[in-house]
# Entry
Amino acid sequence: AGPTVNFGEQGSVTFNYALQMWGQYEDYTSSNDDGDQTDFFLRRNRLTFSGQYNDYVGFYAQLEGGVDSKDGEDDSSTFFRDAYLTLDYSDPLRFMAGRFKNTFSRENLEACLEPLTLDRSAMSFTPFAGSRDTGVAMWGNLADGALQYRLMLADGREADEVAQDNPRMTARVHWSPLDPEYDYGYRGTYLGTQKVFTIGFAYDTQADVAYSDFNTGRNSAEDYTATTADVFFEYPTAAGTFTASAATFDYSIDNAINEDPDLALPANSELDSSYGKVGYLFPNKIGIGRLQLFARYDTSDFNLDSGLLDNTTTAGGFNYYIDGQQLKLTGEYRSVDFDNVESATNPTLQDHDQVTLGFQMIF
Amino acid sequence: AGPTVNFGEQGSVTFNYALQMWGQYEDYTSSNDDGDQTDFFLRRNRLTFSGQYNDYVGFYAQLEGGVDSKDGEDDSSTFFRDAYLTLDYSDPLRFMAGRFKNTFSRENLEACLEPLTLDRSAMSFTPFAGSRDTGVAMWGNLADGALQYRLMLADGREADEVAQDNPRMTARVHWSPLDPEYDYGYRGTYLGTQKVFTIGFAYDTQADVAYSDFNTGRNSAEDYTATTADVFFEYPTAAGTFTASAATFDYSIDNAINEDPDLALPANSELDSSYGKVGYLFPNKIGIGRLQLFARYDTSDFNLDSGLLDNTTTAGGFNYYIDGQQLKLTGEYRSVDFDNVESATNPTLQDHDQVTLGFQMIF
Amino acid sequence: AGPTVNFGEQGSVTFNYALQMWGQYEDYTSSNDDGDQTDFFLRRNRLTFSGQYNDYVGFYAQLEGGVDSKDGEDDSSTFFRDAYLTLDYSDPLRFMAGRFKNTFSRENLEACLEPLTLDRSAMSFTPFAGSRDTGVAMWGNLADGALQYRLMLADGREADEVAQDNPRMTARVHWSPLDPEYDYGYRGTYLGTQKVFTIGFAYDTQADVAYSDFNTGRNSAEDYTATTADVFFEYPTAAGTFTASAATFDYSIDNAINEDPDLALPANSELDSSYGKVGYLFPNKIGIGRLQLFARYDTSDFNLDSGLLDNTTTAGGFNYYIDGQQLKLTGEYRSVDFDNVESATNPTLQDHDQVTLGFQMIF
# Structure
């Protein structure tokens, strides 16, 4: 972590900078051009200012440069990826307000720069307000951190097309019988410093998010509901640290996507999916750093009548930790197979391979 | 205020972060959809870096996240809301150069996070370069701060449609017979720390800003002129602090908006309007903070031949200062009544109500 | 330079802010409107965070407000102008990774806020990824800094229109027999603190960047190649400091621009051009600062069959250094003459004059 400046009696502010640079090979160029490409881009590029106003009230403001320079899209506009206030009354009773990670899936809540594999899967992002949402949360730890609960009230889907913009409600609990995971954010790996076994469940809902008869009456407003279950296990041994994690997802809007929805309704609104990922961290340094091998297996069934998009993604690779997560090299090979049909015209919807080499620094 | 770092013999830089989060209920959803909505959004979200290069030269750079997440518009691009240099030769002779608040109306110059009511009225922003403009200003205090003058030369309206891009000129004076208001910015309330009575006048002009015969010859280029008069009074007593403020505005471009202007000419270019606002701050703490009640009454006559837009807005609410302006809760109820006609199709131009609850932290 | 905060054993971060404000007069208003205009704008507006993670690894992150408020385009989105990591193994062996200045022309590599004349010429920016590119570089100094080499692998042109997105390769060498120029960036003037004579050469290439038969078969993919040669001389004497610099540029894609290219191919892809610039810095202070006079002469031949765009630009002016480059006033008069044809309809492509007065602060 970067430098912290204290001031006043209880105030402090910490500055951080984090950069993830990727070089990526893909065997297609764009959605309308087959061929292949080699692309350097900044996957994450973040300036963070966080601090405490006093012992109770804190803040977190993170400027993001976005996915900069991918496919020739240079000089992406910066925006506040996160901007929120925290009020920590006690460990069982904490509040957040502003824009921050929605509290549904474990993988979305795993730190962006500390995943087990190259990156998170898109299935971990909810159809509306995918990674972050704007609202308020109440959460806390009970039973010495073995039990954690979270409740969130947020914007969810906001669209001109829907008459009633109701709030979205999310609830999540987890149980950690070994070492507790007591933060709001999880990690994809603790690098062998913790013995963790955590099971989590979450439920997400928003009423009347889309019409299933948008062009033919607008009488049937459908509700969004989603559930996820996830398990995480990491155990350090003399022979190395073993990590395994899995989750299932069920998003639904009563099949509106296959009826007569508004055009803006996302294609993943009826998604059923799951992931499994495993890792092995060698017990000793190899060269100047530590080596971790990983693999993941993702299945996604979008339940579209066309059968499009359904795919199975297999990936394997390594993390080489030169100085923990602060200086890390990552390499990954990924294969995407479309289960039912391959698009005849769009190379991004045809079976393809991808090789990525990434470097990350957290300052 | 956040931490200040000194360096060299005279240099210093101060870091600040300010976040205003609002939850807002409105009895319509959008300009093409009646219904209602509940929306959480970040009304203001600002990182500020300011400092002194030496005893004479300083700077102020403020990154703004904009109105983020309102109506589902998430991840607003950040931009420099303010970016300017200051040269303070003496108290009567000060200069500013860059992008900063135009120096016309008192309410626009009241600190964004220290208003008396929930927020400022749109009437306080000039038709061109509404809140900030880019240019240079000379200003200063005379007679021990009882008299303040300001002169500004800035861009004003810049448009392809107008042949001659002349500079805009603004002049403002105020007289403060009690405690002086000697800063470039005013405040909406001093929370009972000052006894203030201030009368101000300002004049704003730019030559040839719009044709009144844009499609029929382009022979008549019209001049923009505007005047405002304002009064501010705040007086602390044993029974609490009383605040009252009022202003009138007269913007004009020789009625071009009702003739044959270019399409980009703003609808408020012929506005006559006024506001009155009052506040009462209880003398003692109530709970952990101090309570201030407020109300405001705004009238706006846009002088459009159609009679559209003219409205009367009435609002009332409270500020609850947990730690002065640094930690503040604000609640406001607002009613907007259209004076002449309500739009048949656009819910935002029909009489409506709004309830807002806001929380602010200035770090 | 602004304040530096140290932390840990080897870590440090430095904060900088730089603002260039220009007031500019031009004898036309826009590309579709003759007339004239006076415009204040922020030419450069930058917050910089840079530092060292340890003795080997460092970073540089620069937020840019862009050309803000020019022609009425206010509140430009900020973006990361630069965002890169450095690995300095030894002076002869250094690495950079991320988004940073492409390493082709000397003038592009001269510090943005330390040019000799008002600003750099557009000819110094390559047709693709003009000023900055995303990729990796290896560079270093040999023979006590007399010889410097640079090799860069970057994105170059990335476009849907091109089947194969190959990497771009750039190589540059310079020879400095007097005082060495050992940084990655050059300067437009050393203000008499160095005796410098440097000759540089660079070569830039990317395979298959554009079809010369885009609409008629897409069989002929053409390669991009570019060369530049530059010389820089600065010598302080008792009579003042003399500066002279010149360069030539040859960009080519095998004449694709005059055949049947995709519409996005830049007009400067077949440019032949050169500049010469001279400066004289008076030996002693004049008033509170130091005065430097400068002039430049640019010729550009775009090799378009239409003969459009070819122009000769002559400029002269002064820098007045109140506190070196930290506080500087600059004035320039510029005349642009189109060599072959003047556009009948576009005032920006007709002979024109421009007068600029600029003020800069580097904090």
Notes: The first helix of chain C runs from residue 106 to 109. Chain C touches chain A at residues 5-7, 11, 13, 49, 51, 53, 57, 59, 61, 63, 77-81, 83-85, 97-99, 129, 132, 134-136, 154-155, 157-167 (CB under 8 Å). The mean pLDDT of chain C is 94.
